[in-house]
Amino acid sequence: MSSECEGKNSWPELVGAKGKDAEAIIESENRLVNAVIVKKGSFVTMDYRCDRVWVWVDKNGIVTQIPVIGKYVWPELLGAKGTVAKATIKRENSTVKVEIVVEGTIVPADLRCVADRVRVWVDTDGFVTRVPIIGKASWPELLGTQGTVAEATIERENPLVDAVIVLQGTIVTDDFRCDRVRVWVDTDGIVVDVPAIG
């Protein structure tokens, strides 16, 4: 579908902007699309359309997810076969590159926001272990480091997220947010769980 959809197809720079401003920018940068503001938590159709961009906003009207033509996150694929997940992602957003990666594989650190790649992390049996999402989504290499170092590293490697240090055992909301990484630390400030978007 990337050959079918003309013009700019992703606006990672608009995460954190006002929804109305994002809507105007998207429509001015690609006159073939209609940007639709949607409040986080709302239900939308899952069809792929070259003429539509969902602009997801929080209760304050601030953009919380990368506006893209097509889908950008697939929580429903957690536990699916990796090859099925890859095919599903390509079908639902063919503007992205999809790669299957086995847990434990060392991959290069992303030093920029990657708005055109999805890594499908799988176990040794080939089943998806992490929610597939566009861009870098987890930092297993930060396990055991100082929380403040992890926080700075995460925000440098993916400027679209806000890393939040949380003391192990603290009660938090269970909502999924693409602009948040919780950095779980022990009482010494050491990272005790793999930081991941969510």
Automatic annotation (TrEMBL):
GO terms for biological process: response to wounding. This is Proteinase inhibitor. GO terms for molecular function: serine-type endopeptidase inhibitor activity. Belongs to the protease inhibitor I13 (potato type I serine protease inhibitor) family. It comes from the Eukaryota. Signal peptide: none annotated. Pfam families: potato_inhibit. The lineage of its organism: Eukaryota, Viridiplantae, Streptophyta, Embryophyta, Tracheophyta. SUPFAM superfamilies: CI-2 family of serine protease inhibitors. Keywords: Protease inhibitor, Serine protease inhibitor.
